[in-house]
Amino acid sequence: MKQNLKRFGHIGLFGCMSLLVAAQPSPVDWYDITTVNKPFVRWWWHGSAVDREGLNFNLEEFAAKGLGGVEITPIYGVKGNEGNDIAYLSDKWMDMLRYVTEENRRLGMQTEMNNGTGWPFGGPEVTENESAQKLIIRSWDVANGKKISGKIEPEDEKQRKVAKVEKVMAVNGNERIDITSKLAKDGTLGWKAPKKGDWKVYALFAGRTFQKVKRAAPGGEGYVVNHYDSVSVKKYLDRFDRAFKGREDIFPKVMFNDSYEVYGSDWTEGLFEEFAKDHGYRLEQYLPEFADTKNQTELRGRIVRDYRQTLARVLRENFTDIWTRWAHSHGAEIRNQSHGSPANIIDLYAIVDIPECESFGRSDLKIPGLHPTGPSKASDADPAVLKFASSAAHIAGKPLVSAETLTWLTQHFHTSLSVAKPEIDQMLAAGVNHIFFHGATYSPKGVEFPGWLFYASVNMSPTNSIWKDADGLFNYIARCQAFLTAGKPDSDVLLYFPIDDIWQRQDGIYMMFAIHSMDKTMPEIKKWVNQLVDAGLDPDYLSDALISELKVAPDGSIISNGGNAYKSIIVPPVKFMPETTLAALKQLKEEGGNVIFVESLPEDVPGLGNLDSRRALLESMKRDMVSPAKDMEEAIRMTGATPEPLRGNGISLLRRTNEAGGHNYFLALLSDRELDGWQTLATPAKSVMIFDPLTGQKGKARTRKGTNGKTEIYLQAAPGQSLLLKTFPTDVEAPEWAYYNKSAAPVVIDKGWSIQFAESDPAIDGVFNTDTLTAWTNLPLEEAKINTATARYKVQFDLPADVEADEWLLDLGDLRESAVVYVNGNEAGKVWSVPFTIEIGKWLNSGENTLEIDVTNLQANRIVDYDRKGKVWRIFKDANIANVDGSRLNDYSGWEMIPAGLNSNVTLTPLKRN
Predict the structure, then answer these.
(1) Which of 663, 605, 619 is nearest to 309 (CA)?
(2) 51, 59, 49, 17: which is closest to 34 by C-alpha?
(3) Do residues 749 and 708 lie in contact, with contact meaning Cβ atoms separated by under 8 Å?
(4) Average pLDDT for residues 793-797, to the nearest whole number?
(5) Beta strand pairing status for 568-571 and 747-748?
(6) Which residues lie across from 748 on neighbouring strands?
(7) What's the pTM?
(8) Does the CA dihedral 151-153-156-160 come out positive or negative?
(9) Is omega for the bond preceding 835 within 30 degrees of 0, making it cis?
């Protein structure tokens, strides 16, 4: 196998500290790394029980390893540590925030903050009357000429105390009478049913969800705020105005909101009037149909769709818009996870400064050498899901797309750096350029193993053994993100997102676009996105609202509000489309834009209001429109976009324009596919630079014109590897990229090994002369089976004198889990991702050589021993430590031992330049 995978450690790329893209010393050099290019971390504060010594220790570690900033999110406390808890936003808490802010300024890091504790927004100042509301519908059968004997109130006793009657309707078939005015103050109804008909009374109440802030910190406990009520939202934010009064100098640059998890909040007082304003008819006139979730009719579907649209608008106007304006008034930006919201999340993402998606669980990637590290959840990181945030950012011109990464990646104590990288690669290929680890938990300096922990966190902190070599991952991300913030997005097509086909479904009333249920919510859309990607195209989602902001350029390109160009708009097979949307699409087509309908034109308009006139308008517009493409394959051919041959089929790829007039490419091999030969690029180029973000190596690629006139580039990459390409419209001067072929069979270094533990818990002394290579968990020593450690593997060997080589590739095989390699006393670099290889030729002697490999394992074996011995380490309130499957079985004593160290042969392969 041909390889060019050199693993270096921290190589000091950090330059200008401006926010996004720093000046490039030369077009063929790496982009300088800015603060925002580095990965950030969500920093959990247990009970906000922090002190200056611990803060300084953690921040120094963060900065030294290469993090760019922290987002402070206080959560529940540690058992027995209540005396050290600090109330949220108290003077003492604000003093700690000031210390962090000033330390970060000294260290070149950025301070960000959750706009609350835990999630969702809420707290002690949110009264019951300002808390999240829900609709309650109750009905009574009323005999002819009779009254309802009891009160008009909810059945639930708790709701009776807080719920407010919004409407009371008397119903007899199609006869609907608003009798709300007949309701007395004591809750009795002064209305008698007529003597004819089968009468039923419906009452809709604005109740309360009683949801409390999840995982709240001291001083942050309380009700979740009503996100649909502007007065309540402003009052909630006023608490922060008071806390920062006189402290504006430490107001965080960015305020954050986690995924929308306001469960069951499907109503707010006044929604009847908002609904009538939107749709021109009264929802209360259709309460029987609206309430009947079991009887699915076309009429009910239209009513429910209209309700969902109004709820989405009210959320946007009364929460997202207000919160955004509030942050901007303080000179801050907002970063928001819009997913989960009962709205078209594309529109909510487009409003905020930094849209944020998230990954949850582990992807089933078939990368050779990527070993499983224990139980995990199935990943939600499908490109079709991740692209909601990046699509909105691209269309609206937002420079950053962030992502909460590595949440519940594996079971506790089983997450390796090698497993983390491909998950992050998927994010980068989906348009993310601002990685946030989820997360790191503050632990006091000197805390006992395993430190303070959060139940769903990867624990990217100094208390985790992966921290030792984590700078390798951090540097990799920083180099990639420097490339992926340069230039502008270069997606190929816009894919219309048919929200009304989803909204008009009748699965209940309240619909949240939760990341964990997208397979159920939008299976067809995921299929269409994957079809486009597999065909070599990169789509961005397009909402109804964003269509109105599009323009057509003289060359026919469709230009978004953010200034990005697309070849065409694809409208997949949809049943419902607003007539205003079709009118906007038709106008774009008349102006020269390429708008492609697939299989059919929309059948109908959504909703109920003014239905006949809207239907007539839709039909009149359809009469003179061109025939649609027969299927998605034909639509792809009609786009005018040139497919990227490298995209899809196991290769994740993102392309952006660059400042040199060419393009920047990120590509990651996330399958068993290997590259070794000429590859075609969709974009023209006179020259191409290759950059290896893992090693810092760069060089000018071999290029040629293919038989079809397209640019071809010679690429060598192994499964699991990532590369960055930079293309130029002119020829550039730069050293050539090093291409290698294997010149002889690998040399197996299988004799003469010794193992010595540089660090170990429990401590292990002495040198173990194993001769043959083995995982240290195979040593005849009980401590070696239960430790977390860094062990030095050492061997002396002679380089074969009869083999010609320009380079030697060291392959560590089944490495458990990361390593630093030394050759003849020289640090050659870190090895932490698949493939576990490193070039070491420059340090080898022609005769005898000494190879030393410092391997660090995971902490799983150590925690098993703790549980078997009954050591108490689950010391956290609230969620404490849950398992990856959500269970609370807090006993890991039955876990199987996982190998540690070098778990297979180590080989040295001679390479020749080709």
Answers:
(1) 605
(2) 17
(3) no
(4) 98
(5) unpaired
(6) 907
(7) 0.96
(8) negative
(9) yes
Q: Amino acid letter at 350?
A: A
Count of other CB atoms within 10 angstroms of residue 21: 20
Cα angle: 18, vertex 477, 492; to 5 degrees:
90
Q: pLDDT tens digit string along 709-767?
A: 999 999 999 999 999 999 999 999 999 999 999 999 999 999 999 999 999 999 999 99
- 646: enclosing H helix or E strand: none
Return the structure tokens found at 6: 């050199």
Helix (H) or strand (E) holding 823: strand 818-823
**Length of the chain counted residue by residue:** 914
Q: Where are the beta strands (DSSP E) in 412-546?
A: 434-441, 488-489, 493-496, 539-542
Residue 419 tokens, joined: 């497993």
Cα separation, 381 vs 526, in Å, equals: 12
Residue type, 241: D
Strand partners, 169: 178, 202
CA 183, 188, 189, 190 dihedral sign is negative
Residue 852: CA atoms inside 13 Å, Cβ hemisphere, count? 14
The residue whose two tokens read 């290469």 is 66
* Token pair of 703 as six digits: 């290029």
What token pair was written down for 787?
Answer: 């430790």
* C-alpha of 275 from chain center: 33
Q: Which residue has the tokens 């070794």?
A: 676
| Residue indicated by tokens 């007529």 | 194
Please write the tens of the pLDDT for every residue from 696-710: 999 999 999 998 999
Mean pLDDT, residues 593-618 taken together? 98
The string of pLDDT tens digits covering residues 640-681 is 999 999 998 889 999 999 999 999 999 999 999 999 999 999
Q: List the beta bridge partners of residue 822.
A: 827, 852
Where are the extended beta strands (E) located within 752-787? 753-761, 767-771
Closest to 854 in 3D by CA, of 838, 865, 834, 866: 838
- Give bridge partners of residue 759 from the DSSP assignment: 790
